[in-house]
Amino acid sequence: MTDTPIDHIRNFAIIAHIDHGKSTLADRLIQHTGALSDREMTNQVLDNMDLERERGITIKAQTVRLTYKAKDGQVYELNLMDTPGHVDFAYEVSRSLAACEGSLLVVDASQGVEAQTLANVYQAIDAGHEIVPVLNKIDLPAAEPERVRQQIEDVIGLDASDAVEISAKTGLNIEGVLEALVTRLPPPKGDGNAPLKALLVDSWYDQYLGVVILVRIKDGRLRRGQKLRMMSTGAVHTVEQVGVFTPKMIPTDDLGPGEIGYITAAIKTVADCNVGDTLTDDRTPTAEPLPGFKPSVPVVWCGLFPVDADDFEKLRDSLAKLRLNDASFHYETETSAALGFGFRCGFLGLLHLEIVQERLSREFDLDLIATAPSVVYRMQLTNGQTKELHNPADMPDLSQIDHIQEPWIKATIMVPDEYLGAVLTLCNERRGQQADLTYVGNRAMAVYRLPLNEVVFDFYDRLKSVTRGYASFDYAMDGYEESDLVRISILVNQDPVDALSFIAHRSVAESRGRAICTRLKDLIPRQLFKIAIQAAIGGRVIARETISALSKDVTAKCYGGDITRKRKLLEKQKEGKKRMRQFGKVEIPQSAFLAALKMDA
Amino acid sequence: MDPATPDREPLALYIHWPFCLAKCPYCDFNSHVRDTLPQARFRAALGTELAWEAARLGPRRLGSIFFGGGTPSLMEPETVAALIAEATRLFTPLPDVEITLEANPTSVEAGRLRTFFQAGVNRLSLGVQSLEPEALAQLGRRHSVSEAIAALEAARAIFPRLSFDLIYARPGQTMAAWRRELRDALALAADHLSLYQLTIEPGTQYEALYRRGEIVLPDADGAAALYEATCEEASRFGLEPYEVSNYARPGSESRHNLAYWRYGDYAGIGPGAHGRVTPPGSPALLATRRHRAPEPWAERVERQGHGIAFEKPVAPADRAREMLLMGLRLAEGIDAGRFAVRCGLPLAASIDADVFAQAQDAGYLTWNGARLVATAEGRLRLDALLSHLVL
Predict the structure, then answer these.
(1) SS3 for A268?
(2) B312 CB near a chain A CB, below 8 Å?
(3) What is the CATH number of the domain that holds B60?
(4) Mean per-residue pLDDT, B231-254
(5) Are A24 and A177 in contact (CB under 8 A)?
(6) What is the 3-state secondary structure (H, E, C) of A444-488?
(7) What is chain A's percent helix, strand, coil content, to nearest 5?
(8) Model confidence, pTM
């Protein structure tokens, strides 16, 4: 596909808040340009995985090449880049944006700008994008295009006077979007004769083709049979297939400057393909890699244990399979006295963690116990060593620690005025420091610095509940700071349950300890014997609850004909107990581990 | 004769009559409704099975006979007489052999009580279930409160021993209402009562109602309170809880049912009947079960002399579990010496020592060096206790 001159190429991303119509608009663009027949269209073509469709989020970057004959009579190649749509994937988003010259900023004309949109649009501006505002859902009675136009100008500082007004749902003015892409976005720049320089945008595992890499060519040409070098690792692969997505995979002979497409090169795992890496020709390499490359580092860790200990190997296999397609997720074996064999897993963020957990249970049919998520702390030990800590169980004795640092984030929360008070209270409870507070019409935008460990528990849930779902939230990592942190141990009948221990700031340790004891009291069913639940810091008990013994559990009628049945029932119960997590003689249901993570009563 | 040697202990004989006039909505017993009852055929088949069982068990003393069902009071009194005569001829009855018949307190059945007594029945168990008219309707019973009272009074005049059943912890039943009803019942009682908390059994009409939320049972605390009140009221009338749901004047315990709970030998004949028997020369205790469906059972008996569908030796570990789950229901508990002989395993090797110690501390179990006993508190939580205790 080398017949499109570079000035007839437009590469663009779509920036939108969840539900503001990104996927619907993408579908309309595909339909309008005839990339897929009506018969081939399923709603939201780009979101492949069930999970993505359900949650309206995109995990992997994807592209579609659209061929559009513009009003000027010329035929243009429009490459739509669908970027991952969540803060957890901020780096991946930045690389997707680096593959484009412009963005459509899609805003729901009845809702206005949301925090997530804001973060992404700033990223696009940072990437040097030309931005075309698009007001969607213009057909809704509640649409207020003038107000939203003004908001875009006030909040983002973009000229929205010639925003394209559309309804992706009804297909209204899709042509206007396509024309704006052609006339308002700049074509890519690049030198076809320079040594190859291509951006690795994303990669995924295909069970037939192996790893498929999504690339954007900056300079030079990428051909089938070429020996390709990945500049971050030095690994060399021979290109087997080159092609583009229409969105069907169509092989081509090569890809030239400005083009976006895919390659396959007999690569076995996406862990060998680092997002943001530069691909070049092994024999005539480019001198400088593209800027902005960063290896991915997990931000949040948690333990994953099979409910049924026999599923350990199955969990290992499943994690390996998931990692085939998701190199940003890390895992290592972990042994817990309470939960047995499992894995310590690292994620880019909370959504990423949730996605992986959900996929494990849904696609691999695994029942899992997840322990409380932990951020990565930095410990300065008294012996001069620096250590990272992401498992409360690994925290050494306080006498060995000189000081601990914890990661902070900068959070942007947009919320209707009437909920602002509740949001500020929540942020303050979570040790937040207000950095900025501005108003746009009746919406407030609060910028807070927060310790990440206050956010990983149930911050989203609490934010949602105190704002009835009207708040939008976004964050970026914002460095490490020294902090007075302690480990809270949970003891069941005097035995510590390692998987329930957690790290918290000393100022909130007691209230959290009490809250978790109360919660466990509600979650652990009454059993044969009474159960003592305690929270302790070091040797000092800070909270205690007692679960009284169950009051009655006996079969009313049991005669000669019932013996066999009763015995079998008993044996079944015993078998069931073997699979249950027992601490002393206490059975702790899985739900207790999950719900204990929610800190606020 | 050594009474501790189980195969020399008296045998308990259970005879199952599988027919009822109607199926009660809470009942999961092996009962069937027929337009006309095949009396002659079943009398013959039960006789054949009895003879077959007696032949293989050899000479045994007979401690009790129990006619259960179904509704055995629907049997012709001649059938009952014939089976009692046959059983006492084939085995050696103890002088005070206990012969119980279950009966429903409808007027028709009550009219035949004397003939059952003449047939040899010396203990009657009446399925009264409630003394509240609405409750009887709800439970699907075909008798009225006044019929029940009349039947009880008639039975007391005829039988030396009498028991009846009540079901409590019924949907909507308050503590006060139950105490009232129970006191009325105790005033009518003779030497024995069976007082059951309503249990939702799988496959019953009640289960469907329960699933739909149309039946609400008391929670564990409520059920425990009702249970404790029941023990208290019964004790005040001199009926002591000798088993989880059974109350008797001392000495009037059901000897037949004690055989089950003490894990003695019992032979079960008739459709669906279970047994635990030790034929002479058999290396182990056998678990037996008869074919459940009445007519196919009868066909097998007619063809091969017995209707056994299942018969298998019970392994020592299984015997231990069975004896524990039955024996701890009794206030007298389990005799460790008899346990070891009966199960082929010492009692100490059959329970979890840690759980035992913890249960002792919690006041659920006692041990005096010879008997393991579940206390009243322990019996109240016996299912949970067993699931931890047995190995």
Answers:
(1) coil
(2) no
(3) 3.20.20.70
(4) 97
(5) no
(6) EEEEEEEEHHHHCCCHHHHHHHHCCCCCEEEEEEEEEEEECEEEE
(7) 30, 35, 35
(8) 0.69
- Cα of A362 to nearest chain B Cα, Å: 28
- Cβ-Cβ contacts under 8 Å, A531 against chain B: none
Mutate to test the interface with A, among B163, B321, B351 (most CBs of A within 10 A): B321
Per-residue tokens: A481: 């700071």
Same domain, B337 and B234: no
Q: Answer whether A201's CB lies under 8 Å from A49's CB.
A: no
Looking at the DSSP bridge assignments, the partners of residue B310 are B289
| pLDDT 10s digits, A374-430 | 999 999 999 999 999 999 988 998 889 999 999 999 998 988 889 999 999 999 999
* Predicted complex ipTM exceeds 0.85: yes
Distance CA A109, CA A152 (A): 11
Q: Which residues, at least 6 apart from A282, have a Cβ–Cβ distance to it below 8 Å?
A: A227, A228, A229, A236
Buried b (16+ CB within 10 A) or exposed e, A351-368: bbbbbbbebbeeebebeb
Read off the pLDDT of each residue in B71-99 and give the average, rounded to a whole number: 95
Whole domain around residue B371: which residue ranges? 316-389
Q: Cβ A528–B385 below 8 Å, yes or no?
A: yes
- Looking at residue B259, its pLDDT comes to 97
Number of domains in chain B: 2
Give the number of other Cβ atoms within 10 Å of residue B252's Cβ. Answer: 20
3-class secondary-structure state, position B1: coil
Give the CB-side neighbour count of residue A50, counting CA atoms within 13 A: 4
For chain B, say whether A559 makes contact (Cβ under 8 Å): yes
Residue from A494, A527, A530, A551 to probe the interface with B (highest B Cβ count within 10 Å): A551
Helix (H, G, I), strand (E, B) or coil at A323: helix
- Measured distance CA(B211)–CA(A538) in Å, rounded: 48
Q: Please give the Cα distance from A133 to A166 (Å, whole number).
A: 11
- Average pLDDT (B267-288) is 92
* Arithmetic mean of pLDDT, A280-291: 94
Residues B368 and B250 in one domain: no
